[in-house]
Amino acid sequence: MGAWIITGGMNTGIMKLVGDIVPTNPNNSRPTHIIGIATWGCVSNCDQLLVDGSNVGYVKSHSTERGQAPLEPNHTEFIFINDGTRREYGGEIKFRANLERAIAEDFFAPQSPSNVTDSLRSSSRIISTRAESSDPVPVVLLVVEGGPNTVRT
What we know:
Elements: E1 4-7, H1 13-21, E2 33-39, E3 77-81, H2 93-104, H3 113-121
Parallel strand pairs: 1-2, 2-3
């Protein structure tokens, strides 16, 4: 499994630099996934993405409107958080922090068959015992710039 790099997904600042640099990875046997987690109301031309059941081509705008930016085109996946706001960054922070914590705590590791059965029987509690063969997932957080919301991630 290759690396997962999680950014805000926008075509600005360090997110753009990551998108520009990472595709130069010469090791195709371990692909690097650049995952953008963005607040829906901050994505310029987000209406283009309202397509159900098929892929869509996104044409990035050169929007200079405050609180909006185009998506960085080299990201391999995007997760959009729609908190109902328009042009207000930060709606993705809580989700992103929870996802990164889940990855770091081995939440996505395969469960042993007995744990899967137990999980199905008990929907009111989370079974945290994982298969013994799962490798730990190292998580590195690199903060290059940011405002007050940076400490929340």
